[in-house]
């Protein structure tokens, strides 16, 4: 895979600049504009590289066509202990999660945030380099993290399940069963 590292990086960058996924044929065209790569080699990269997931395109499948959507992946995560200031030397990123969301209320000329907003820090950069994500733009990296790190998904408020609509739905579901 190392011989394909530039192709992998370029494909990742393209995917991240297109909200994290793209049709296989469209991605291949974009990569081919920069790299002379055969269909077979491109398919090999997408199937073997853990950076990508191939998802069958439902619209094409309904028409009987075999087409796929390529989704960018990473195993890199934000450190859960970092927010508690209880972590030293782990293999996860030390960043303010609100900075990744793009809505940290600190660091915009106001009071300084107590969590890192530096993806190039001594802790973060080696991790990004190891995962070959160090050349991505900040926005591309954040999209990749948001798309892959379950800890960055928004919390569902417990009261949501106690709204009248949910209660009515649950009562109806239980009364139908029994």
TrEMBL record:
Zinc-finger ranges (C3H1-type): 95-120
- Which keywords belong to this entry? Metal-binding, Zinc, Zinc-finger
Q: Which PROSITE patterns match?
A: ZF_C3H1 (PS50103)
Give the InterPro entries listed for this entry: WH-like_DNA-bd_sf (IPR036388), WH_PARP12 (IPR056226), Zc3hav1-like (IPR026693), Zfn-CCCH_PARP12 (IPR057602), Znf_CCCH (IPR000571)
Pfam (any one): WHD_PARP12
What sequence ranges are listed for the domain C3H1-type? 95-120
- Could you tell me one molecular function GO term of this UniProt entry? zinc ion binding
| Protein name as it appears in the record | C3H1-type domain-containing protein
Organism source for this protein? Pangasianodon hypophthalmus (Striped catfish)
